[in-house]
Amino acid sequence: MNNPSSTFLWRDRKRIFFGLPWTFTVYTLTEDRLIVKTGIFNTSEDEIRLYRILDITLRRSFWERLFGLGTLHLCTADKSSPEIDILHIPSPREVRTLLSDKVEEERSSRYVGVREYMGEDEDGEVH
């Protein structure tokens, strides 16, 4: 299968107490999308195209720092998921760098800029 979205660049689970991966939330980064799958019996899968990610913020509470974890908060241009949190993941700085690099690659390959996501008001001014 040569589909670029079938290649995993990064995959991990949300961590809980002491940084153990005993949850049913799985984060997957492919060449062109981020997939968040939750649940065991009733599952939900949220997919965001990388070029739609506008901002990535790393947040680390005291407990997360203690166990080498962090949370990435993503602001997106996706109407169904304007904000996504990648909760309690190990090596959050490395994941943020990887994700940020892939977002820029996708934007460049699709000739998409952040300005295209900004709205105009009644006077035609861009926000």
Instruction: Report the structural category.
Output: alpha+beta
Stretches where pLDDT is under 50 for at least 5 consecutive residues are: none
Q: Determine the N-to-C terminus distance.
A: 42 Å
What is the general shape?
Answer: globular
Fraction of helical residues: 10-25%
- Mean residue pLDDT: 88
Cross-sheet strand order for the largest sheet: 1-2-3-4
Rg (CA only): 16 Å
What is the count of helical runs? Answer: 2
Count of β-strands: 7
Measured by DSSP, the beta-strand proportion falls in 35-45%
Topology as a string of helices (H) and strands (E): EEEEEHEEH
The major pleated sheet works out as: 4 strands, antiparallel
Description:
A hairpin with a 5-residue loop joins strand 3 (33-38) and strand 4 (44-49). This protein has helices at residues 62-66, 92-110, and strands at 8-13, 26-30, 33-38, 44-49, 53-59, 69-76, 83-90. The chain contains two helices and seven strands; from the N terminus they run βββββαββα. It is an alpha+beta fold.
Summary keywords:
19% helix, 127 residues, alpha+beta, 3-stranded antiparallel beta sheet, single chain, 4-stranded antiparallel beta sheet
